[in-house]
């Protein structure tokens, strides 16, 4: 059970750190994205803390809620990981285009960081933050560049998510086993 809480703490601290790093280096300017990543990291950290307190105190109710929440997190994480691994090139392209059309701040970040303009085509009358547009006004579209990274990132995120989802189901099983053990500090004649 300690290994499961350790992996949750690691994942939560990594999420918080990556979001802070993205803002610090100017890679991400969307406060909504960073806020969600930090909130998920804090949520996972609090869940790990509940499990730790429940295990140290051998508190049945805390361990029960920890087990249920961890099971729900496993289901969501396993589903998202499988979806990341199952997306084909066409679905990735559609997903990227929807994201491109719905978020101006992410679009500006991508154009600035990848030095490209427009998604599939670019209208020179539109504004673009890429350095190629400022110097020569002729830039490559962003879709092929993003497409290269998207496949790699989705496979990486899906694999890491799948790995940690199995550590979470291990944590659920260990919590279930630990909950049903007799508290060693309790009265030896007590049943549970």
From TrEMBL:
Alphabetized UniProt keyword annotations: Membrane, Transmembrane, Transmembrane helix
Keyword Transmembrane helix included in the entry's annotation: yes
Record membrane topology: Multi-pass membrane protein
Transmembrane segment boundaries: 10-28, 34-56, 63-88, 156-176
A family per Pfam: Tetraspanin
Keyword Transport on entry: no
Annotated GO CC locations: membrane
Name the UniProt record assigns to this protein: Tetraspanin 13
Organism, as annotated: Equus caballus (Horse)
Lineage: Eukaryota, Metazoa, Chordata, Craniata, Vertebrata
Annotated gene: TSPAN13
């Amino acid at each position: 059970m300690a290994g499961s809480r350790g992996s949750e703490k690691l994942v939560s601290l990594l999420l918080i750190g990556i979001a802070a790093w993205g803002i610090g280096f100017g890679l991400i300017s969307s406060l909504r994205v960073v806020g969600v990543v930090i909130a998920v990291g804090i949520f996972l950290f609090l869940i790990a803390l509940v499990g730790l307190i429940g295990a140290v105190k051998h508190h049945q109710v805390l361990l029960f809620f920890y087990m249920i929440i961890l099971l729900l997190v496993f289901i969501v994480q396993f589903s998202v990981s499988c979806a990341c691994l199952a997306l084909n090139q066409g679905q990735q392209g559609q997903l990227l285009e929807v994201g491109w059309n719905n978020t101006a701040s992410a679009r500006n970040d991508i154009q600035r960081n990848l030095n490209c303009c427009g998604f599939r085509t670019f209208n020179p009358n539109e504004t673009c933050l890429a350095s190629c547009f400022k110097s020569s006004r002729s830039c490559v579209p962003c879709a092929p560049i993003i497409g290269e990274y998207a496949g790699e990132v989705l496979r990486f995120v899906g694999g890491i998510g799948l790995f940690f989802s199995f550590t979470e189901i291990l944590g659920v099983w260990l919590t279930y086993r630990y909950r049903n053990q007799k508290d060693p500090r309790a009265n030896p004649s007590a049943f549970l």
